[in-house]
C-alpha cells in the first residue's frame, strides 16, 4: 500500500490488517538491478514492529484456528482469482525489482496461483488418520493441529512463489503468519500481501514486516510468540537460524543452497540436452536454487556438446527483463556481481579454462545494471572449489567423466543435494540414475529446474534439514499431530493390560 504515487513511493508494513510505517519511521531504498532506477522506499523495521506483528498474529490465531478449514480455503480461492487478475501487474513489479525476464516473472506468479488453488482444495481434505483401537467401544484417531504463529523468512530470487509456498500452506493449516521478505524484493511482497487483504483475510492472520535479516529476521526467530520458522536462503544464514531456534526447541524448515548438475551421456539427444542446459544454467541468470551449475558429460559427447553450447551461449541477449528481446537479466545486486566475478580468479587458480564470458557486461545501457556474461568453464575436476561451491550466477562448470557410475558419484559428491538431471535414451541408465542420484529432485530428459507445486520440494544433505515444501509434504511441517482416544464403553479400559 503506497502513501504517495509515482517514483519514490513510500510503502508500509501490513500489521493487524493495517498498512503502517515502521515504529521509528525508518525506511530504506530499493533499486531496479537492471538500470539503478529508484523503485521506492520500504520500511526498515525493528523489534517494536516484530513485537506488534507477533501480538496481532497471536491474537488472530485463536479465531483463525477455529475457522473451519474449508472456509479458510475459500479465502485462498479468492486469493487465487485475484492473483490471476493481477498476474501481469505483479509480474512486471517482480521483474523490475528482481531482474528476471518477464516470462519467468509470470511463471513466478503462476506458481503462487497454482499453490493458492492447491492449498484451497486442501481445506476440504487435511486428512488425519482413523485407526482401530485395541479395546472394544473405543475410537482412536489422529488430527492435524496448527502450530500457532509462524515466521516465513524468504529470499529474493522467487519473490512471490516462495512466500506463497510457505504462507499458503501455513494458513490453510490454521496458523497465523508473519512474512519477512528479502530486502532486495519488498515491493513484490507488498503486492502479494495486498491480494490477501483484498480477499478478505481477517486482520492479523497474515502480517508483513519488511527489513533486514538482523533487525527483523533474527528478532522473529527469537520471539517467544513465534512457534516455528520457515526459512529459505543461504546455508550460512540457515545454519544460524537453526542454531538460534534450537535454544527454544522451535520447529524450523530450511531450504538452502544447491550445486545442481545435469548429466549428459553419450547416447543423449544433444539438441534436447542443449535446450535443457541453457534454460537451467542461464535462466533467472543462474540465480535459482535449482539452477544447473555443473554439467557432467560423458567423454564421447563432450566435444560436440561443447561446440553446440558455445554457439548458443554467444546468442543469449542480455538486457532489462521487461524487454521482449532479453534472454538473460541482471544479477540481483552489485555485491552478487562481485561474488560471481571473484570465482573467475578461483577458476584460473584451479587451472580451469574459461571458454566464454568471465566478465561483467558493460556496453551501452548494460553499464547501468549488474549484468554478467554467461560463462562456461571447461576442464573442471570433481573437488575443485568451482565444482563444489554455490556461485549463484550465470556460470556453468563442465566436468568430463567416463561412465554413468562416475557421473553419479560426481553428482553426489557435494555438500548439497537439491536437484539433478540426466539426459539419456537408455532406459537402464535412466532407472539407475533415478535410484542412485542422491538429491531431493531428479529429472530425466529435462533440466534441473521446473518443479511443480503438487510434489514435495527440497533437498538432501546441506540443502536443508529434511523437511519439504509444497505438495502434502508442506503440511507435515505446518501441523502437528494430536492423537485422540474416545472411550464409549462406560468403564475403565486399560490399554496394553485389558486388551
Ligand atoms: P540469505 O540467506 O542472504 O537471505 C534469506 C533471508 O534471510 C532474507 O530475507 C534475509 O533478510 C534473511 N536473513 C539474513 N540474515 C538473517 C539472520 N541473521 N537471521 C534471520 N534472517 C536473516 O539468502 P538470499 O541471498 O536472499 O537467497 C539466496 C540463497 O537462497 C541461495 O543460497 C539459494 O540457493 C537459496 N535458495 C534456496 C531455495 C531452496 O528452496 N532450496 C530456494 C531459493 C533460494
In short:
The protein is an alpha/beta fold.
Describe, in plain words, how this protein is organized in 3D.
The protein has 499 residues and is of the alpha/beta class. The protein has two domains: 13-256 and 464-483, Aldehyde Dehydrogenase, Chain A, domain 1 (3-Layer(aba) Sandwich); 260-444, Aldehyde Dehydrogenase, Chain A, domain 2, CATH 3.40.309.10. It contains 15 helices and 21 strands. The protein has helices at residues 47-64, 69-85, 87-98, 102-122, 161-172, 186-198, 213-222, 235-246, 270-282, 299-315, 334-349, 385-388, 404-411, 427-436, 473-478, and strands spanning 13-15, 18-20, 27-31, 38-43, 129-132, 138-146, 149-153, 176-180, 206-208, 226-232, 251-255, 260-264, 292-298, 353-356, 375-378, 395-401, 416-417, 419-423, 441-444, 460-461, 479-487. The strands form six sheets. A seven-stranded mixed sheet has the order 14-15-16-13-12-18-19, with helices on both faces. The chain has a five-stranded parallel sheet with strand order 9-8-7-10-11, sandwiched between helices. α2 (69-85) packs across α6 (186-198) and α9 (270-282) crosses α10 (299-315). The chain is globular, with a radius of gyration of 24 Å. The protein starts with 12 loop residues before the first strand and ends in a 12-residue tail after the last strand. The site of nicotinamide-adenine-dinucleotide (NAD) has 31 residues, from α7 and α8.
Amino acid at each position: 500500500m503506497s502513501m504517495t504515487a509515482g517514483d519514490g513511493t513510500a510503502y508500509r508494513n501490513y500489521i493487524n490488517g493495517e498498512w503502517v510505517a515502521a515504529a521509528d519511521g525508518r525506511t530504506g531504498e530499493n533499486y531496479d538491478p537492471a538500470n539503478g532506477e529508484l523503485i521506492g522506499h520500504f520500511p526498515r523495521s525493528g523489534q517494536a514492529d516484530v513485537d506488534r506483528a507477533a501480538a496481532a498474529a497471536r491474537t488472530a490465531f485463536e479465531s483463525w484456528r477455529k475457522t473451519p478449514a474449508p472456509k479458510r480455503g475459500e479465502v485462498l480461492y479468492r486469493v487465487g482469482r485475484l492473483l490471476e487478475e493481477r498476474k501481469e501487474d505483479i509480474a512486471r513489479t517482480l521483474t523490475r525489482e528482481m531482474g528476471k525476464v518477464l516470462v519467468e516473472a509470470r511463471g513466478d506468479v503462476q506458481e503462487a496461483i497454482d499453490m493458492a488453488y492447491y492449498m484451497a482444495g486442501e481445506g476440504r481434505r487435511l486428512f488425519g488418520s482413523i485407526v482401530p483401537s485395541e479395546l472394544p467401544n473405543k475410537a482412536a484417531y489422529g488430527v492435524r493441529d496448527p502450530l500457532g504463529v509462524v515466521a516465513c523468512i524468504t529470499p529474493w530470487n522467487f519473490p512471490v512463489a516462495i512466500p506463497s509456498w510457505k504462507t499458503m500452506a501455513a494458513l490453510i493449516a490454521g496458523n497465523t503468519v508473519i512474512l519477512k521478505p528479502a530486502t532486495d524484493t519488498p515491493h513484490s511482497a507488498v503486492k502479494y500481501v495486498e491480494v490477501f487483504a483484498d480477499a478478505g483475510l481477517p486482520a492479523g492472520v497474515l502480517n508483513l514486516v519488511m527489513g533486514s535479516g538482523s533487525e527483523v529476521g533474527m528478532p522473529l526467530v527469537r520471539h517467544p510468540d513465534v512457534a516455528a520458522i520457515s526459512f529459505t536462503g543461504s546455508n550460512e544464514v540457515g545454519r544460524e537460524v537453526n542454531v538460534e531456534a534450537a535454544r527454544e526447541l522451535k520447529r524450523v524448515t530450511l531450504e538452502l543452497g544447491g550445486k545442481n548438475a545435469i548429466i549428459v551421456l553419450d547416447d543423449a539427444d544433444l539438441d534436447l540436452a542443449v535446450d535443457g542446459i541453457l534454460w537451467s544454467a542461464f535462466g533467472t541468470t543462474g540465480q535459482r536454487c535449482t539452477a544447473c551449475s555443473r554439467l557432467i558429460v560423458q567423454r564421447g559427447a563432450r566435444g560436440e556438446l561443447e561446440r553446440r553450447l558455445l554457439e548458443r551461449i554467444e546468442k543469449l541477449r542480455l538486457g532489462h527483463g521487461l524487454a521482449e528481446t532479453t534472454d538473460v537479466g541482471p544479477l540481483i545486486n552489485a555485491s552478487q556481481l562481485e561474488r560471481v566475478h571473484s570465482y573467475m580468479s578461483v577458476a584460473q587458480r584451479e587451472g580451469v579454462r574459461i571458454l566464454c564470458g568471465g566478465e561483467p557486461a558493460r556496453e551501452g545501457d548494460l553499464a547501468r545494471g549488474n549484468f554478467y556474461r554467461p560463462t562456461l568453464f571447461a576442464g573442471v575436476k570433481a573437488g575443485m572449489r568451482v565444482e563444489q561451491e554455490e556461485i549463484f550466477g550465470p556460470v556453468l562448470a563442465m566436468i568430463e567423466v567416463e561412465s554413468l557410475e562416475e557421473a553419479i558419484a560426481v553428482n553426489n559428491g557435494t555438500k548439497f543435494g537439491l536437484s539433478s538431471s540426466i539426459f539419456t535414451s537408455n532406459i537402464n541408465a535412466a532407472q539407475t540414475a533415478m535410484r542412485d542420484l542422491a538429491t531431493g529432485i531428479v529429472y530425466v530428459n529435462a533440466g534441473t529446474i521446473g518443479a511443480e507445486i503438487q510434489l514435495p520440494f527440497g533437498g538432501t544433505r546441506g540443502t536443508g534439514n529434511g523437511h519439504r515444501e509444497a505438495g502434502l509434504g508442506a503440511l507435515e511441517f505446518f501441523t502437528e499431530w494430536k492423537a485422540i482416544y474416545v472411550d464409549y464403553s462406560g468403564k475403565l479400559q486399560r490399554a496394553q493390560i485389558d486388551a
